């Protein structure tokens, strides 16, 4: 009963936030690995639900398991990102580095994009932890290990990854003289959801493997939705709470899950200084 009341309150809050004039649509370029590429088509659905007009996916460039530098080094005949940036056709570019940082590709894309669009913004996704650990013995041996291992191990690895990324992004913004580059804290949002599962407070989810499809950690629908909400919030700087985006997969798990994921995303993004987003009073 208490949870249902909370959902009602969040829905009312989301409605009030969305009652304001929606922001203008952005031209978005997505460069990604498999922990990020899925946001490309989903952002349009959220933009429509929020009443945002003019959202455009300029291009989506995918390389499995990639560092950002691999996207930079693609040959011309396969390159989608560089031509779009050079033409000044992008307002927001998203990137998704691997755990090995610094990633020179981030620096190069920021330099190129800012040169051709001085007002351009760049989002770098801090993803959830692959293999549930940093390296070596910290990594799980099979997907089912996620159901029994301590989340503190994952939390420590997630923090290490984010801290390394923060150092690179801070240096980039200092060099640009403005906060052009932001971090999308998806890894932190996923940790919050995993903590709720561990404490039995995530409707429709009973174990950690309800979130992950394989050993590496490719996300199932709750993670895909949560990551998309986080990226949407960082791109448009508005709350996704209350958005009526159609998602049959989430509804099958529980009708209470979608508003929870929306709230986790907004709470995480709006509380994180390097997201570029502040909570609405």
Could you please describe the fold and organization of this structure?
The chain is α/β, with parallel strands linked by helices and 281 residues long. The chain has a single domain (25-273), classed as Rossmann fold (3-Layer(aba) Sandwich), CATH 3.40.50. The chain is built from ten helices and five strands; from the N terminus they run H-E-H-E-H-H-E-H-E-H-E-H-H-H-H. The chain has helices spanning 2-18, 39-49, 68-72, 81-86, 104-116, 151-176, 186-198, 221-236, 248-253, 257-271; strands at 27-32, 56-62, 92-95, 121-125, 181-184. Strands 2-1-3-4-5 form a five-stranded parallel sheet, with helices on both faces. Helix 2 crosses helix 8 (221-236) and helix 7 packs across helix 10. It is globular, with a radius of gyration of 18 Å.
Q: Secondary-structure map with pairings?
A:
Elements: H1 2-18, E1 27-32, H2 39-49, E2 56-62, H3 68-72, H4 81-86, E3 92-95, H5 104-116, E4 121-125, H6 151-176, E5 181-184, H7 186-198, H8 221-236, H9 248-253, H10 257-271
Parallel strand pairs: 1-2, 1-3, 3-4, 4-5
């Amino acid at each position: 009963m208490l949870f249902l009341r909370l959902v009602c309150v969040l829905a009312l809050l989301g409605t009030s936030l969305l009652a304001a004039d929606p922001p203008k649509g952005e031209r978005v370029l997505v460069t990604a690995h498999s922990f990020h590429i899925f946001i490309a088509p989903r952002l349009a659905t959220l933009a429509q639900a929020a009443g945002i007009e003019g959202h455009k996916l300029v291009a989506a460039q995918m390389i499995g398991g990639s560092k950002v530098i691999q996207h930079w080094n693609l040959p011309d005949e396969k390159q989608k990102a560089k031509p779009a940036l050079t033409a000044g056709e992008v307002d927001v570019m998203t990137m998704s580095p691997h755990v090995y940082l610094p990633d020179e590709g981030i620096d190069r894309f920021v330099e190129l994009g800012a040169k051709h669009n001085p007002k351009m913004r760049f989002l770098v996704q801090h993803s959830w932890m692959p293999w549930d650990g940093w390296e070596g013995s910290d990594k799980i041996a099979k997907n089912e290990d996620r159901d029994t291992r301590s989340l503190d191990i994952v939390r420590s690895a997630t923090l290490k990854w984010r801290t390394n990324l923060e150092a690179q992004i801070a240096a980039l913004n200092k060099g640009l003289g403005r906060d052009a580059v932001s971090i999308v804290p998806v890894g932190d949002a996923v940790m919050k959801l995993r903590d709720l599962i561990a404490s039995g407070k995530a409707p429709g989810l009973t174990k950690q493997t309800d979130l992950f499809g394989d050993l590496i950690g490719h996300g199932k629908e709750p993670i895909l939705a949560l990551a998309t909400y986080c990226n949407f919030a960082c791109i448009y700087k508005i709350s996704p709470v209350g958005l009526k985006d159609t998602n049959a997969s989430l509804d099958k798990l529980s009708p209470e899950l979608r508003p929870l994921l929306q709230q986790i995303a907004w709470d995480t993004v709006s509380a994180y200084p390097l997201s570029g987003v502040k909570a609405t009073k």
